[in-house]
Design brief:
MTHFR_C, 8-stranded parallel barrel, 22 helices, NADP, Methylenetetrahydrofolate reductase (NADPH), alpha/beta, 5-stranded mixed sheet, 2 domains, Fadh2_euk, single chain, Mehydrof_redctse-like
Amino acid sequence: APSAFAFILPLGDLCRSMAIMVNQVQSVDSSWQSSKADSSGASNSSGESSKESSRCSTPVLDADRSDRLRDKMRRRIESGDHWFSLEFFPPRTASGAVNLISRFDRMGSGGPLFIDITWHPAGDPGSDKETSSMMIASTAVNYCGLESILHLTCCNQTKDKITGYLGKAKHLGLKNIMALRGDPVGADWEEEEGGFNYAVDLVKHIRSEFDDYFDICVAGYPTGHPEAESYQQDLRHLKEKVDAGADFVITQLFFRAETFLKFLDDCRTIGITCPILPGIFPIQGYQSLRQLVKLSKLEVPEEITSILEPIKDNDAAIRNYGIQLAVEMCRVLLDSGKVPGLHFYTLNREVATMEVLRQLGLWTEDPRRPLPWAVSAHPKRKVEDVRPIFWASRPKSYIYRTQDWDDFPNGRWGNSSSPAFGELNDYYLFYLKSKSSKEALLQMWGEELLSEESVFEVFTFYITAQSNRCGQKVLCLPWNDEPLAQETNLLKDELEKVNRRGVLTINSQPNINGKPSTDPIVGWGPAGGYVYQKAYLEFFTSSENVTALLKVLKKYEPRVNYHIVNVHGRNLTNAPDMQPNAVTWGIFAGREIVQPTVVDPVSFMSWKDEAFALWIEQWAKLYEDESPSRMIIQYIHDNYFLVNLVDNDFPLDNCLWQVIDDMFELLDSPAAPPCEDATP
């Protein structure tokens, strides 16, 4: 990390320092039922606080509280807040990995406490492959901001190999392990020389080698493990796993609520006091149910099969029945007062699980964000609360390029005289790749481009969300893989006007003067605060436009700061001493001012390389070499400038649109200026 960053030094009003939270080991020292009883009088306000601080992406502003998963569970149990969690399995293909990461983003918006990723021995699960369990779990933590549990099995693995995987998981920021024996590769379990044969041995090994770093989950079987001699023996094995160091239990699926509730009572009777989460499987298809039942060696109750058989070829009917069945069972569990959270086996699908959660009232898409940008759940980034605005629409890229930093800005950006941004050489890392196929991108961005104006149209259709000439809506651009954000919609009319004329915007924000932090569009941070923004505009435009713009900007100084650069590195700015400029900040009760977003001139030069490269990597390469379409994109890449503008007078009306209007007025005048000044 750049040694010049003064991460915790105060600077006027726009700064704060935050002590780095130390993980503290806290255990649930009473039974599930007594914890629930003790918290029965908890107020709604404490419940909201617990829920906010326990969502998958823990707000940095609450970094004084333990971020361990078991402590999040404890706080939710004490406050009486129900939660849910989600299980996924690694995909088989690279495109499947891209789709799964998109699903993480969508399902993460509903507020799961955590997700877990299964371990598939046949799929090289501990490797760096994009389809491995290790990489999928790491991506969920680092790039999607989701608290994640990595499954780990004993199957076909030596003790040293397991230790290596655990060390790798720790390095990648994973903090939670689900310790399992695993299913045998063949018909019967075969002992691995130098390995483990039981999950309890794996739990002991994790505690021996890594002390208390990992929170450990183990599996429970409401009807007993199919290989156990008896139900009672299996309960004793579960207690051995908990006594060895497991923090909580997730159960195998079941079909009747009373099955789980009896199991829960039996566990409490023999002294298992940790959280025990029921595994919920919404039936989504006849064949998937048969396959899962075969693997888990469970029997489906006759009252369920009698309903499924007549509709087994009607997927929609089965899914609707599965949703109804899951909702009814979950309500019984939650109403019992003994079950604070539900764990869903999603089968990498989202419709059924999301519908069940909505009907239960557990799906809560909170528009408030902990910070204006997507946070990472990696432990070393937990104090990070400042970033340059340039990566606002590419947060995964920013996280990737700063993953090797030892420290992260906290309180203020500081003097970034030499920020060590990593190179982004692989634009097709599965967590950075566009969710859209090549065919879909061509339909949106043009099978054939005729001129620069064709590109202007693409940007305009993206801004307006209207269909292009082929009847296709433009839902993304190389710099923005999502439709226009609500905040950007506030500027929609002005953005449409300037994009039509070749000011190709890729980032913008309106000026905000003291909006409540709970505002559904621009709000962020804890409730009861106020947020502020300077107007910001970032765009590509031609050298002719830049020449006129530079003349116009002289009359707007010092109100407007600008930074203009081309792909060759020509650099024009009026930033004082290359210092960062805070463009977003918030004021909250009992806290110093928080400034999470800055315009940093030095970081802009690193962003410049990425922003220009995206023209080629994600757009030009859609076309054949030397084709007219590719040459048009290449020309823009080679000759246009990247510009950012900041209007520092945030209490006044945004003047940046007038700046652009003045630029066009100068260009349209009979004595338009020559263009030599801004040529590369």
